[in-house]
Amino acid sequence: MKRFLCYSLFLLCLNAFSQSDSTASSNTSTPLSSPAIIPGDSMLVNFNDTSSKPKKAVYEYVSVELSPGFILPAGNFASGDHNNILAGYAKEGFSIGGSVYIKVVDLVNIMISYSRQMNTFDENSFGSNALKGTKNFTLTPRSNWVNNFVLIGGSGNIPLDEENFLTPRILFGMCLSKTPSYQTAPTGTTNLIGTPITVDSEREVKFAFRVGVGLKKNINKMFYMTINPDFYYTSLKSNINQRFFPTSPPAYQTISNISLSVGVGFRMH
Q: Rounded CA gap, 209 and 126, in Å?
């Protein structure tokens, strides 16, 4: 009886050990796994990923441009005909100026510009009138045509691609003009007859306008370059031919230049 009880107790312990061993082995054989990630779950956000954050838009609100250039007179202003009372006897010259652009919307800017234009005076053609009726006299220019345009208007900003833009514009304002001054004097060194005569410049402020279409190319985020063909126009009450062709009322002196300038601009964000 005692042997039967010992045998039964041995079998019971063996069975309990075998069950605990199988449980332990099953626990060690199954690896710990992380929670499954469900595709498209909006709650799973990587807060360390900065690429998903929206970028702040760069907005250009003011740009400044400097633009030296070449000018060519047009119409009566370029005429050297001494029989034309409206002739300006102006030749090619150069200009220097600058512009400020203030953005209104993406395609439109308010434009404020200044241009100082200097045309060479054709004293040889003008001398046909100034020296008429005199002998042994010569004409010496003392200054050339100078026109200062101060204008304001609108400018477009039409994209051709990511880097290049078309920039049509029209501006109105005022022009301070200065007519050429000159001196006539007898030539030679002996037996001089006559007295030197100096004709001073006249200054006048009149209405003016500018119209043109340019090209702008971005260099980088801050700088850009432009090519600007433009037409400038103003007219004066005074006339450099009035003393040779007296009329009443005086014929207006028209001033018109075709300008081609190259600019470098700086934009502020």
A: 27
